[in-house]
């Protein structure tokens, strides 16, 4: 029996693709007035792409630097030129590139999950509504934008690997394994996927299945990634200079907090791999598990059970990666934090949505009275994901145009009146990505990979503020990815809009090292009450109707 309302697979797919277009439409209609994610997006990656595209160093040599950031940030910190997303931002305006990237990712996410379910998990025509519906839901998850297909491309890769494993390999499967590395990242997803595939092959081998074509396919995709990410490989193997990643010490949670985080992550997920599974998918999971227990379907539904166990294991792994008992080990072996093995949880979107499809199949096959709930759960999950559209969940955040405030910062450039490369700036209360996006040369930055020596120099500027506040001291000293001018009064807050009434009353910066590093101006989102004590002079205040910021321009004396 199939769903009579949608009895044509082509109609289902067409309708699904139409819904994806509707989901993406605000990006194309609103453009720079659209609202999108700020964290690890507007405050970093999007500005990085613009800085790189304007630097003339996209194809720069291994030892090239980007002078606009941190007095010469290594070119390798900006990733590989073999990633398509870099060229999107090179040839298109920011929001056009962003919209195209979202479109590419979501359409291939849909395709990958659909053919994976159709060919390997739910092969009967009776399940075509489940296959298309779950694939559509998977493609609408609010993934981390600069991750591209790092997680959402895993179903497509698994589809290819499973065909190769079944000795049904064709040229198109190797095409998939070749092209995916050009629009994804090995450290943001596929390292962990390929590790899982390798483990899968080992299990097969131990069970007597000597499938060397499967192994060669895993090795092949790994080699393609290593070629694409040659800058990362070089930095890891041959660059002996200490970098900021060497002082990333994450393990701080007690045993109880790790247990609590395990369950929290199992239900709610993580910001970089948001699956929005804590309501309808979780209900389907528990109903399917009840049916397996009640009807003793353990053998028939082994795949569902394995995925459920794997899902919880990945949540627990993520939580216990932050257990403070590991701190001595990670201090000794820095590579454990360089690769951030907590990211094995990036496998969860694939695991959760394949489990969702299998759970719906179990309900469909084993509880006749509950069959009408199968389309309900699919439609409800899709509607829930529509509610997580960026334009809805970030509507109270600045739009792209408001965030970068190009006209406002053009006015500041005109007021200063010097070539941008002749002076350096830093910001207080706003992300340095904003000034970088507008072409200013900044001492501050948000980057996980920059020279440790630079971190120590920059620390001298804010050492008095760090001494007053343990939270920001630990945050800077034991991570330092945000190389910001932190203040004790503001703590870990970086976005103060023009209607904010706060002031900086007891700022204590060391301006001498700031000037020695080339610093000339500080852009503050809040007024400083004691500028002369910090050897600063307020030159002018800038604001406009089109910007959410009010910038107090201070000159170093």
Keywords:
DUF6044; 4-stranded mixed sheet; 557 residues; alpha+beta; disordered N terminus; 2 domains; YkoS; 26 helices
Give an account of the 3D structure.
This protein is α+β, with helices and mostly antiparallel strands and 557 residues long. The chain contains 26 helices and 8 strands. Strand 7 (536-543) and strand 8 (550-556) form a beta hairpin. The longest helix has 28 residues, at 94-121. The termini are far apart. The model is unreliable at 1-5 (pLDDT under 50). It comes from Metabacillus sediminilitoris. This is YkoS.
Alpha-beta content class: alpha+beta
Give the count of helical stretches.
26
- Tally of strands: 8
| Overall geometric form | elongated
| Largest sheet composition | 4 strands, mixed
How would you write the strand order of the largest sheet? Answer: 3-6-8-7
Give the percentage of residues in beta strands.
Answer: 5-15%
User: Radius of gyration, rounded?
Assistant: 25 Å
Number of domains: 2
Mean pLDDT: 92
Give a brief rundown of this model.
This protein has 557 residues and is of the alpha+beta class. The chain has 26 helices and eight strands. It comes from Metabacillus sediminilitoris.
Topology of this structure?
Blueprint lengths: L8 H22 L7 H5 L2 H11 L9 E2 L6 E2 L9 H8 L2 H28 L6 H12 L9 H4 L1 H12 L5 H9 L6 H21 L5 H17 L1 H9 L16 H14 L11 H16 L6 H19 L6 H6 L2 H4 L9 H19 L6 H15 L2 H4 L6 H5 L1 H11 L7 E5 L3 H6 L7 E2 L5 H17 L1 H8 L4 E2 L27 H6 L2 E6 L11 E8 L6 E7 L1
Parallel strand pairs: 3-6
Antiparallel strand pairs: 1-2, 4-5, 6-8, 7-8
Helix pairs in contact: 1-5, 1-6, 3-4, 4-5, 5-6, 5-8, 6-18, 6-19, 8-9, 8-11, 10-11, 11-12, 13-15, 14-18, 15-18, 24-25
Pfam families: DUF6044
Protein name: YkoS
């Amino acid at each position: 029996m199939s769903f009579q309302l949608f009895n044509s697979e082509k109609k289902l797919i067409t309708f699904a693709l139409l819904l994806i277009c509707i989901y993406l439409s605000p990006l194309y209609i609103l453009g720079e007035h659209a609202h999108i994610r700020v964290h690890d997006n507007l405050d970093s990656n999007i500005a990085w792409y613009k800085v790189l595209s304007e630097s003339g160093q996209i194809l720069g040599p291994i030892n090239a630097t980007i002078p606009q950031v941190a007095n010469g940030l290594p070119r390798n910190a900006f990733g590989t030129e073999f990633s398509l997303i870099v060229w999107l931002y090179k040839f298109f305006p920011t929001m056009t590139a962003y919209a195209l990237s979202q479109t590419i990712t979501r359409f291939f996410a849909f395709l990958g999950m659909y053919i994976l379910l159709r060919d390997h998990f739910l092969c009967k025509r009776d399940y075509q509504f489940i296959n298309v519906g779950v694939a559509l839901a998977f493609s609408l998850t609010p993934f981390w934008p600069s991750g591209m297909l790092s997680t959402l491309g895993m179903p497509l890769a698994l589809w290819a690997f499973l065909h190769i494993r079944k000795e049904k390999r064709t040229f198109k499967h190797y095409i998939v394994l070749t092209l995916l590395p050009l629009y994804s990242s090995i450290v943001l997803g596929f390292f962990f996927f390929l590790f899982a595939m390798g483990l899968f092959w080992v299990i097969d081998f131990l069970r007597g299945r000597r499938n060397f074509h499967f192994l060669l396919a895993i090795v092949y995709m790994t080699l393609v990634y290593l070629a694409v990410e040659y800058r990362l490989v070089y930095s890891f193997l041959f660059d002996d200079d200490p970098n900021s990643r060497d002082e990333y010490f994450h393990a701080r949670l007690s045993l109880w907090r790790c247990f609590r985080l395990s369950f929290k992550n199992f239900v709610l997920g993580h910001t970089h791999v948001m699956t929005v599974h804590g309501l309808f998918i979780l209900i389907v999971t528990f109903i399917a598990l009840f049916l397996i227990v009640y009807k003793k379907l353990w053998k028939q539904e082994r795949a569902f059970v394995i995925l459920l166990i794997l899902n919880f294991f990945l949540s627990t792994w993520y939580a216990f990666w932050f257990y403070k008992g590991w701190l001595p080990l990670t201090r000794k072996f820095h590579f454990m934090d360089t690769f951030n093995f907590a990211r094995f949880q990036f496998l969860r979107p694939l695991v959760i949505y394949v489990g969702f499809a299998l759970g719906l199949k179990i309900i469909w096959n084993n509880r006749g009275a509950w069959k009408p709930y199968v389309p309900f759960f699919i439609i409800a999950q899709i509607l829930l994901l529509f509610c997580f559209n960026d334009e809805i969940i970030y509507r109270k955040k600045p739009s792209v145009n408001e965030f970068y405030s190009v006209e406002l910062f053009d006015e500041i450039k005109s007021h200063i009146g010097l070539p941008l490369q002749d002076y350096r700036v830093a910001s207080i209360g706003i992300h340095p990505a904003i000034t970088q996006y507008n072409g200013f040369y900044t001492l501050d930055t948000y980057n996980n990979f920059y020279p440790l020596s630079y971190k120590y120099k920059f620390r001298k500027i804010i050492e008095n503020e760090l001494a007053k506040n343990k939270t920001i001291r630990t945050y800077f000293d034991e991570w330092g990815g945000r190389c910001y001018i932190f203040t004790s009064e503001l703590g870990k807050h970086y976005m103060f809009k023009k209607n904010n009434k706060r002031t900086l009353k007891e700022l204590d910066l060391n301006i001498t090292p700031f000037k020695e590093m080339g610093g000339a101006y500080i852009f503050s989102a809040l007024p400083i009450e004691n500028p002369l004590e910090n050897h600063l002079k307020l030159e002018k205040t800038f604001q406009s109707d089109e910007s959410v910021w009010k910038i107090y321009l201070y000159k170093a004396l």
